[in-house]
Amino acid sequence: MLRIVIAEDDINFKKELIKILLTMEGVSVEYSTGDGNDALEALIKIKPDVAILDIGLPGISGIEVAKKIREYMPFLEIIFITSFEEYIKDAVKLYASDYIEKPLDEKRLRETLDRIKKKLLEVENVIPFKTEDGVKLINPKEIYCVQASKKRSIVYTQKEKFICDYSLKEIEELLDGSMFFRTNRSFLVNLFKVELLKDNNRTSFEIRFKGSNYTAYLSKELYEEFRRRVKAIYKS
């Protein structure tokens, strides 16, 4: 369900907008207001998926609401609906999902909300990793392995490797245990990505991955459990 908060001071326009939204499948209007300050408080409290904001709000403008809410909800989808074309640049800077001019283009609104729905379905399958540069949203299927690095971890993905602020134990709790296996004290491995094992020394194997130069290590004490888990994957 796509949860929406509306901020629009034109009562008749707001009624029309709500009426249209209520005809859409998988959409829920959680709250509506005509005041910018009230809208900001509602967004923080409700934490919806989408904010539909008029730019010319009393109290504080829709642009200011968007700027402030970005501090609390960096991934909130924002749609601006307004008569003021000159604010398009501001909307772009705030990563707005769309900027729809009045009178309301119903077809465009529906298309935008459908696009957001699809995007959120994809996002449901990602995990947020805190890094020095912000939060990275990563689909676990893209992860080859995770390596402990003191109190933090190095995450190896198809596109990059990066250091995140979680310990290996914390990441292990976030990831699906049927997909990932702790191969020793330092590595957590995506079993679906494993290509082969190679003798490393008397206590460990070297793990090689499909389509990657990354390597990880498996304790020989855990070999039988590792083998059983890999077999279970390919039987399912």
From TrEMBL:
Gene3D superfamilies: 3.40.50.2300, LytTr DNA-binding domain. Keywords: Phosphoprotein. The modification 4-aspartylphosphate is found at residue 54. Signal peptide: none annotated. Residues 3-117 form the Response regulatory domain. The keyword Phosphoprotein applies. SUPFAM superfamilies: CheY-like. InterPro entries: CheY-like_superfamily (IPR011006), LytR-like (IPR046947), LytTR_DNA-bd_dom (IPR007492), Sig_transdc_resp-reg_receiver (IPR001789). The keyword Phosphoprotein applies. Residues 127-232 form the HTH LytTR-type domain. One of its GO terms (molecular function) is phosphorelay response regulator activity. May play the central regulatory role in sporulation. It may be an element of the effector pathway responsible for the activation of sporulation genes in response to nutritional stress. Spo0A may act in concert with spo0H (a sigma factor) to control the expression of some genes that are critical to the sporulation process. This is Stage 0 sporulation protein A homolog. It comes from Thermoanaerobacter siderophilus SR4.
